[in-house]
Every structure is written in C-alpha cells, then in structure tokens.
Design a protein that fits this description.
alpha/beta; 34% helix; Rossmann fold; 6-stranded mixed β-sheet; globular; 6 strands; single chain
Length: 200
Amino acid sequence: MPTIYLMRHGESVVNIERRLTCRTYDGDLTERGREQARRAGEWLRDKGIRQILHSPFHRARQTADIVGEIVGLTPVADADLCEMDCGELDGKTSDEAWEVWGGVYRRWLMHDLDAAFPGGESYRQARERLTRALAKAVLNEAALLVTHGGIITTVVPTLCVNAAALQDVQSVENTGCVVLETYDADRYSCVAWNLIDHFA
C-alpha cells in the first residue's frame, strides 16, 4: 500500500523571528533546521522513498534538498503544498496580527470550510489544494511531501478515515512526520502523527 510521509520543514529564521510568512517564500533554515533535515534524511534513507515533492517556500525547499541529497532523489516544487495563505497578515510580527491569525486558525481546527484569513484563503480552498497534492503521490511506492505545520495540523485529519482518533492532535514539530496510507481515491489512514524518531 502506498505510503506518504508528510513532513514539516526544519526550523527557519521566520520561526525564530515569530514572523507570519504564509505568502512570501523567503525564510532560510537555521543551522539547527539544517541539522534536523539531515537527521530526517538519514532516517528516511531506508523507507523506500521514490518521490519528493515540496512547498516552494525557501524553508521547505531547503529541507527537501537536504533530504533529497541523502536519499538520492531530486525534489520537485508543488505550490499545492504551500502553507495556509494568511493574506494581509503576511510578514507581520505584532501580537495583534497573531491574535487575528489565531482566531482564524482555531476555526480551521474546527474544520469551518468558510473560515478565511483577511485577503487570504479559506479552509475550503486549503483543503482542496492539499487533497490535490496528496493525489499526486498515491501512485508511488512511497513519497515524501515537505510542507508546513499549519496546513498539516488543520487539514490532514479531515482527509483520514480514522479522523475520530485525530480530534486532539498536537502541532507538528520541525521535521516531524505524519505518515499516511492510502485508503481509497481521496481518503487516507493516518498511521503516525508527529513522528520524530530521527531525533532519538
């Protein structure tokens, strides 16, 4: 059964700066983030990965490149793996901006299809594009999709047949993996959440 490893990117400068970057791609990995990616790559080396897709954000691309070099694959960018588009909040660091972001984010966690960031995308739109991204991987023996914590945490549970077991999921750590197995055309079974064995 095809296996999909959905991995959050490594730690980046925007994480340290607490800067909302949900639309612009800039934000390099920190040295810690590069080390996280190296460890993840070593852990994934024997998992039979045949394809690596990644968000075009710098932090995701750099993570995918490090992993790809270790497992011997060339990563391919896919805009459907972008972080949630927070619209007018992009680039902001203020408490006020984070408060607005948090309000919408909580509605996304409740799977409110119409909840949208000001000038950004709705939950419905994000769910549709992540569904497209996952569909591109199902024909492969195993695939790695490098993306972002927000989009994973809010959307993935609704695509899983065991969603009831994922009602109180925690955020995904940098280079943490969510492991999915295909169930049918557009649904999955989640076999692991925030897997961080490579940190052991």
